[in-house]
Write a structure and sequence with these properties.
Largest sheet: 6 strands, antiparallel
Oligomer: single chain
Strand content: 15-25%
Radius of gyration: 42 Å
Number of strands: 17
């Protein structure tokens, strides 16, 4: 629908009709003619038809004066028959001054323009539909106002043209309205931001195409549904923001909200930068909130890249600090535990350092030869604290067959393991069977390689509050393992010299 078609029927203000000036039209004389003298109206004191006509005329005057658009009407000869209050506001001429004049000549338009304006207005009486024109009118104080008019014929009872009505408004106000309509249509069709109009019950009332794609539903399927049906995470935070906007108004800056979107492939974690605007009715005397306009755009990739960059910077700094501190350690094992302590910060809950018992197996592992591992150092199983050097007795750790640490030595590469979706009891049993702390859910075993040999295994453990180890975590663990392996190799060489 064109923007100009949307404003053909101006809305009526929701205000009482009490006190409306009857001068909006020439109705009083016509009503007196129909009614006749009071003594001739019948025994009831007032003729029923006359009362109905008077009530209809009052209603018409109230409707005309309550319109937000200026309106005037002409009879077939071009005489002004109706003039409402908005027309008086724009041009300054009252209804008493306007009604009864012939056309606009000599008062509402310049003399040079009068003939052209009258011709264009009265042409609507013999034309189908409505006609739209723009021309300049003259106010009572002599100013010129550019207006846009919509005029159409008024038909008599027999269908013949009986006059013309003309609705007009200032061009700048009309342009502002058209821009508002064009903006709303663009937002709900072509906008690169998601736009959702949420009603006072915090349920979507209108959803644009971009938002529907982001939510993974159709534009109509999302309407009237609770936000909890569309999102599986971040619903509480989003509803709290919407409720705040309804009560207090729009926040001063956009907010970034992490949500989980349901989809056929499972949950998708997204970060939406959101702006909120409270919507109020323009027809109410006092602001009445109609809902909230929620505008958002997806910034997940940007935020994830920033988080990964920040995490990489932190890990690099930790590794740098560990190297500087380890360089001041006289005992190579102290240097190895120093690397463990610095690596744990923000990375894992526990760390275990095991060395291969006996000569270090060459190549990628001891294929066909049983591998025994001896605990060298470990972080406290309960509570926080620095790594503790253990294994002075040289007793091997009782790892069972297929243990991730043994697989790591045999393969010569990192191994990730976890309890998966097991229940808490089964996850606890799995961790204890692996001889790890009971709260362990995720594990990462990395081989300690130095001078072409596997010297042992470095194991990092995480509890249920942390996410599983990913490829980035594996790369960081291997960087730490390289430094630990060098320190462990130096310790083996020093022990060999002492024993020799």
């Amino acid at each position: 629908m064109m923007a100009s078609e949307r404003i053909r029927a101006p809305y009526v203000r929701t205000q009482p009709a009490v006190g409306v000036q009857v001068s909006a039209s020439r109705r009083s004389g016509a009503a007196d003619d129909r009614a006749g003298p009071r003594e001739q109206r019948g025994p009831g004191g007032q003729d029923a038809a006359g009362a109905a006509d008077g009530a209809g005329a009052d209603l018409l005057a109230a409707l005309l004066d309550g319109m937000d658009a200026a309106l005037c009407a002409f009879d077939a000869q071009g005489t002004v028959t109706h003039w409402n209050r908005e027309a008086e506001r724009i041009l300054g001429w009252s209804a008493a001054e306007a009604v009864g004049r012939h056309g606009f000549a000599g008062w509402a338009v310049r003399s040079a323009d009068a003939e052209e304006v009258e011709r264009r207005l009265m042409s609507a009486m013999h034309a189908p539909g409505r006609q739209v024109h723009e021309f300049a009118l003259v106010t009572k104080d002599g100013r010129r106002v550019l207006v846009r008019t919509q005029s159409a014929a008024v038909r008599g009872p027999d269908g013949t043209p009986a006059g013309v009505y003309c609705a007009f408004s200032e061009v700048h106000a009309q342009i502002d309205l058209e821009r508002s309509i064009a903006l709303s249509e663009a937002l709900f069709e072509d906008a690169s931001w998601g736009v959702v109009l949420v009603d006072a019950d915090l349920r979507p009332a209108v959803v644009n195409a971009h938002a529907a794609r982001a939510l993974g539903v159709g534009r109509t399927a999302a309407l009237g549904r609770p936000l909890g049906d569309l999102l599986c995470r971040g619903v509480e935070e989003l509803e709290s923001a919407l409720a705040h906007v309804l009560a207090e108004g729009a926040p001063p800056a956009p907010a970034e909200i992490w949500v989980g979107v349901r989809g056929p492939e499972g949950e998708r974690r997204r970060c939406w930068r959101s702006g909120f605007v409270r919507l109020s009715s323009p027809l109410a005397e006092e602001p009445v909130p109609l809902g909230v306009a929620w505008l958002f755009t997806d910034v997940t990739d940007t935020r994830q890249a920033e988080q990964e960059a920040a995490l990489l910077r932190f890990r690099t700094q930790q590794l740098h600090r560990a190297v500087r501190v380890a360089a001041e350690c006289e005992d190579p094992l102290d240097a190895a535990t120093c690397h463990l302590d610095f690596a744990l910060a923000g990375f894992a809950d526990h760390a275990l350092l095991d060395r291969v018992s006996g000569p270090a197996p060459p190549g990628d592992g001891a294929k066909g030869t049983p591998v025994r591992l001896v605990r060298v150092a470990a972080t406290p199983a309960t509570g926080a604290g620095p790594s503790v050097v253990t294994g002075r007795a040289g007793l091997p750790v009782g790892y069972g067959e297929g243990h991730p640490a043994l697989q790591c030595v045999e393969r010569g590469s990192s191994v990730r393991a976890g309890a998966g979706t097991a229940t808490a009891d089964r996850a606890r049993s799995w961790a204890l069977a692996c001889q790890w702390p009971a709260e362990t859910v995720h594990a990462l075993c990395t081989p300690l390689r130095s001078r072409g040999r596997t010297l042992g295994v470095l194991t990092f453990l995480r509890g249920p509050s942390r996410s599983p180890f990913d490829r980035g975590d594996t790369a960081h663990a291997e960087d730490v393992a390289a430094h630990v392996a060098a320190a462990l190799d130096l310790a083996r060489s020093a022990d060999a010299e002492k024993s020799g």
